[in-house]
């Protein structure tokens, strides 16, 4: 379905913006009635009666144990499928015509927006004012497809901001509230949530901006219930979530894309949004000097890239702190756009889109003329082809001058960096940016879940050969001695009686737990700890690590420039960025703490914390109180301290134990949330008999020697999955 065939969720327009209709009072009233009826129906009957899309990256899939991605269909409507959703946003009360004056209103340069109120309830202890579907960029349809985002123009019109805006094509995502959204190319929109009446004159409110996950191939800003996050906060805050382009439309690596200067468009969407928040949040009562970015998975990977980018930017970073959940700039792989994997996937995408024979110079003009459904189906087909091996297509890539990126042609919005959105967002290998100190030194809260790999690795792998094949496919540069070291670090449960990976669920292969552990370290845990390491050891003057000596090149493999090993000493410095590291341990599907399981707990989403069905979860409630409270404290505090004023369990800043051998261990403080809790385990996946266990809400731990050893293994081989393919 083309963008012309879809009906936008917001009807806007003025003489300066002909693509949107200015809302007359009558039209506003009609739309309000329709929206209210729809919300009340879902609120009464529950999202389980709404259509349910497939997604490889949704909470509902994790809860159900369904992690198989399916191809897109022609349908563009998506809805939430989490039967435990508390549906707070379905209780939105749009203002009817006589009550418009009492609805929340905000005046921006781009127009006046009329929002709605979410009344207080068991799910929402405080009423929330919501402004939804506000555009921050023009449509990306037609000739604007595969282009840099263009900021929204000025308007003196008045617009409704009650319904969610379009989600980006191919997002195939679940909204935390269960509401239906329409996919379309006019999708660069945002939502703002603030406590009702909380606009104190004496101070501006702290702001958090949520960056969604989805492997850069899916996802939507409303995947996390940020209205709940705001409502449960003891201190008043403002939250923003938004969409960015995903899949081939947002991340299409190739030599052709590089020469056109069109790499990493989804990251550039994010940067435009950050600038929008900085410039507009004061109108909502927010503090532009106290903005925190928060992201999960691909959202956290993205934030990691922005930590690097804004250290080089000619304008100050539009955020002051960052929360990275299960993600990092060095996670998985960051390749050049000319890596053979990306080039092969690009060719396969063109074949799937039916334009394989088009001359190179006509590729993007032709793609701009295709129905958007053709592009999303081709994008999903390539995703499905590579999903099982985790060699994912359509990822961020190095886009600096040496990647063929036409960095001299920076075109886009005026303002930042000499008048344009820069062509280069990831100019260098992320690990080199860490080593050279090219990163912001700001407070960061980051962490991981115990079993990050369960939903990604092959479930039926049964032999050591299967174990080897998975990693040699993912990282072809691994040598025989690397594989032998890998096998020693993660003992084979089939042949080694002392292997810690012997216990697996019925129906799972005997290598599943072993693969989970190894992939968790490679893709999530060790990259997260790498972020914590470099930020906590950065010298105040140089930004380089100051903990004695650290490896700046692999001692096991040639680096991309031909070097083998280089060690660098840096003098100790003060003013290191405070970093707080967590581990989420409460078990759910498969009796494990899976990727993304912490998301609704952090949001204090009562659909998961206290569901209507399945029995009480007092332990999860305690964990949610602890995690949500710490996250809010971090956001509110200008120095990023997650600790409350009084506490019996103090969360200490991380000190890295991962400097070079012999330099002495640091105090690797990690806060563990939910150890021993099994209240979210489905009956078929109960890991322990007997009554449900609440576990421990929060307790500190330090990294084990085994954890440090495993991360050293992966770090010493990082050049095998970064900066390859130029």
Automatic annotation (TrEMBL):
Chain segments annotated as transmembrane: 21-42
Segments of this protein annotated with the region Disordered: 67-90, 543-574, 656-704
Compositional bias annotation for Low complexity: 68-79, 693-702
Superkingdom field: Eukaryota
Species name: Phialemonium atrogriseum
Protein name in the entry: Alpha/Beta hydrolase protein
Alphabetical UniProt keywords: Hydrolase, Membrane, Transmembrane, Transmembrane helix
Domain Carboxylesterase type B: 103-655
A molecular function GO annotation: hydrolase activity
Bias (Basic and acidic residues) ranges: 677-687
Stated family: Belongs to the type-B carboxylesterase/lipase family.
């Amino acid at each position: 379905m083309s963008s012309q065939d879809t009906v936008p969720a917001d009807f806007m327009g003025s003489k300066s913006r002909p693509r949107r209709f200015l809302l007359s009072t009558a039209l506003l009233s009609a739309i309000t009635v329709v929206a209210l009826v729809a919300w009340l129906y879902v609120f009464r009957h529950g999202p389980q009666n709404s259509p349910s899309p497939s997604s490889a990256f949704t909470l509902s899939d994790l809860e159900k144990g369904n992690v198989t991605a399916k191809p897109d269909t022609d349908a563009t409507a998506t809805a939430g499928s989490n039967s435990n959703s508390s549906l707070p946003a379905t209780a939105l009360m749009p203002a009817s015509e006589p009550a418009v004056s009492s609805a929340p209103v905000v005046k921006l340069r781009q127009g006046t927006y009329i929002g709605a109120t979410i009344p207080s309830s068991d799910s929402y202890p405080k009423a929330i004012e919501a402004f939804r579907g506000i555009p921050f960029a023009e449509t990306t349809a037609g000739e604007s497809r595969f282009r840099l985002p263009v900021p929204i123009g000025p308007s003196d019109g008045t617009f409704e901001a009650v319904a969610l805006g379009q989600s980006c094509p191919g997002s195939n995502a679940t909204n935390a509230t269960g509401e239906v959204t329409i996919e379309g190319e006019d999708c660069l929109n945002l939502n703002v949530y603030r406590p009702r009446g909380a606009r104190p004159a004496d101070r501006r409110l702290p702001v958090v901006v949520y960056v969604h996950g989805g492997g850069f191939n899916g996802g939507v800003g409303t995947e996390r219930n940020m209205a709940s996050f705001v409502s449960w906060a003891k201190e008043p805050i403002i939250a923003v979530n938004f969409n960015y382009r995903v899949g081939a439309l947002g991340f299409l690596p190739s030599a052709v894309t590089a020469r056109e200067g069109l790499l990493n468009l989804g990251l550039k969407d994010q940067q435009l949004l950050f600038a929008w928040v900085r410039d507009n949040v004061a109108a909502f009562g927010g503090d532009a000097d106290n903005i925190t970015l928060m992201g999960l998975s691909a959202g956290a990977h993205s934030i990691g890239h922005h930590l690097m980018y804004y250290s080089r930017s000619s304008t100050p970073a539009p955020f002051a702190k960052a929360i990275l959940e299960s993600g990092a700039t060095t996670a998985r792989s960051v390749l050049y756009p000319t890596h053979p994997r990306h080039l092969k996937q690009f060719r396969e995408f063109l074949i799937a889109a039916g334009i394989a024979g088009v001359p190179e110079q006509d590729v993007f003009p032709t793609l701009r003329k295709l129905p958007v459904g053709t592009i999303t189906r081709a994008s999903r087909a390539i995703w499905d082809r590579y999903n099982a091996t985790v060699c994912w297509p359509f990822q961020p890539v190095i886009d600096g001058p040496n990647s063929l990126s036409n960095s001299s042609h920076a075109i886009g919005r005026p303002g930042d960096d000499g008048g344009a959105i820069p062509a280069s967002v990831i100019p260098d290998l992320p690990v080199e940016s860490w080593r050279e100190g090219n990163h912001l030194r700001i407070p960061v809260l980051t962490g991981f879940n115990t079993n990050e790999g369960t939903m990604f690795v092959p479930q039926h792998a049964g032999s050591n050969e299967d174990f080897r094949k998975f990693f040699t496919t993912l990282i072809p540069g691994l040598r025989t001695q690397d594989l032998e070291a890998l096998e020693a670090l993660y003992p084979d449960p089939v042949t080694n009686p002392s292997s810690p990976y012997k216990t697996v669920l019925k129906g799972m292969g005997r290598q599943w737990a072993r693969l989970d552990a190894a992939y968790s370290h490679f893709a999530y845990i060790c990259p997260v700890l790498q972020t914590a390491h470099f930020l906590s050891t950065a010298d105040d003057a140089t930004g380089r690590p100051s903990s004695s000596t650290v490896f700046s090149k692999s001692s096991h493999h040639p680096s991309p420039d031909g070097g083998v090993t280089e060690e660098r000493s840096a003098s100790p410095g003060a003013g290191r960025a405070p970093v707080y590291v967590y581990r989420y341990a409460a078990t759910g599907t498969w009796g494990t703490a899976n990727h993304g399981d912490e998301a609704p707990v952090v949001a204090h989403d009562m659909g998961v914390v206290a569901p209507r069905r399945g029995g009480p979860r007092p332990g999860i409630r305690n964990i949610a109180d602890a995690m949500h409270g710490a996250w809010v404290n971090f956001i509110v505090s200008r120095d990023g301290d997650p600790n409350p004023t009084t506490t019996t369990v103090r969360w200490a800043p991380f000190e890295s134990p991962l400097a070079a051998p012999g330099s002495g261990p640091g105090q690797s403080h990690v806060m563990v949330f939910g150890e021993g809790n099994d209240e979210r385990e489905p009956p078929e996946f109960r890991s322990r008999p007997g009554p449900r266990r609440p576990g421990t809400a929060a307790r500190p731990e330090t990294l084990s020697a085994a954890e440090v050893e495993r991360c050293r293994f992966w770090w010493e081989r990082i050049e095998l999955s970064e900066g390859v393919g130029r």
